[in-house]
Design a protein that fits this description.
The chain is about 40% helix and about 20% strand. With about 325 residues, the chain is of the alpha/beta class.
Length: about 325
């Protein structure tokens, strides 16, 4: 059957060439026909069944973790570009660093309807609080009105009518998005390999006999900004063998009081490194902040640093778990 189809495509190519038409090679025509047969595809995205009629050709992504999900899937050639602040750390050491070279950095500011229209986007991949927001009217519904498809980061899915987020565990969100995007871009085999590799990498992380208490410090001096139960950092800490001291808070990224941090006496502080102040300045603040002087992590100088992209849903999550687990094992005895 394949030989017959190829022969037919070749005959059609000769006929069209005689008429002066520009055509793709026969192999490309067969591949194109196979890709077309994949569509339309329907996936469950944040509880909504969403249908995509064709393979995206000019996708626009927002923020580093979201962008790197597409790079890891090998679809940089299907992107019009990405939006990302320039404070998200180094991107020249990740396995998919070539994706940054092959695509366009559209803006270092926030993503907008005007920007994606100017880029000729046919799909926008962002998240609630990672680009999508009701306040400025940049929503999947608004994009649909412009004829632009969207996909919502599963880590950011709304779990109710308010600002709360999180409808699945963060790593399940990662695997779900890889599988869904694999369908949307017709690269499901690559997505499945990534998921299997990530699961194996995380399963190989040894778990300690006792979990150390870990406090994630993102920012803030009057009140610290940290990670609750629905943030990707929660599962990163847990899978690494730690216990997130603010994991009882039913939110993702949120503000707490210093008194609650002191009361929970974290044994390790995990710094989320991005922007200004940098990790060094954050470390200096934590070590000199009087209310934290008696906290075990500060007293024993147990402060570990991960990049922003390690701590939000991204293909960096498995490596982040491995690195944090090694640090927790190294400090467990003292």
């Amino acid at each position: 059957m394949r030989t017959k189809a190829a022969a037919s495509a070749a005959l059609l190519a000769l006929a069209l060439t005689a008429c002066g038409a520009d055509i793709a090679p026969a192999g490309d025509a067969v591949a194109s026909s196979g890709a077309a047969a994949h569509y339309p595809v329907t996936v469950d995205n944040c509880g909504t069944r969403t249908t995509y009629q064709r393979k995206p050709a000019r996708a626009v992504s927002n923020d580093v973790g979201i962008t790197e999900l597409l790079f890891a899937l090998g679809v940089a050639d299907r992107m019009a570009g990405y939006v990302m602040p320039d404070d998200r750390g180094r991107v020249d050491e990740v396995a998919w660093k070539d994706g940054y070279r092959r695509t366009t950095w559209l803006s270092r500011q926030r993503i907008t309807k005007e920007l994606v229209l100017e880029a000729g986007a046919d799909l926008v991949f962002a998240g609630w609080h990672y680009g999508f927001g009701e306040a400025d009217g940049f929503t999947p519904k608004a994009l649909a009105g412009l004829g632009i498809d969207s996909y919502v980061l599963s880590e950011s899915c709304r779990s109710g009518s308010g600002p709360e987020r999180g409808v699945m565990s963060p790593l399940d969100a990662l695997y779900t998005d890889l599988a869904n995007l694999g369908e949307i871009f017709d690269v499901r085999d690559r997505a499945d390999r990534l998921i299997a590799d990530f699961r194996a990498q995380i399963a190989a992380v040894p778990q300690p006999a006792r979990r150390q208490r870990v406090f994630l410090y993102d920012s803030g001096e009057d009140k610290p900004y940290t990670a609750g139960r629905f943030a990707a950092a929660q599962e990163i800490i847990t899978r690494a063998g730690g216990e997130n001291v603010t994991g009882d808070i039913a939110d993702s990224w949120t503000t707490v009081g210093w008194e609650s941090v002191v009361r929970r006496d974290p044994e390790v502080i995990l710094i989320n490194d991005y922007g200004d102040p940098d990790a060094g300045a954050k470390r200096s603040f934590l070590k000199s902040f009087p209310p934290l002087a008696g906290v075990s992590a500060v007293r024993n100088d147990r402060i570990f640093v991960l990049d922003y992209a390690d701590l939000v849903e991204s293909p960096r999550n498995p490596a982040a778990i491995t690195a944090l687990a090694a640090y927790l094992r190294a400090t467990a005895g003292g």
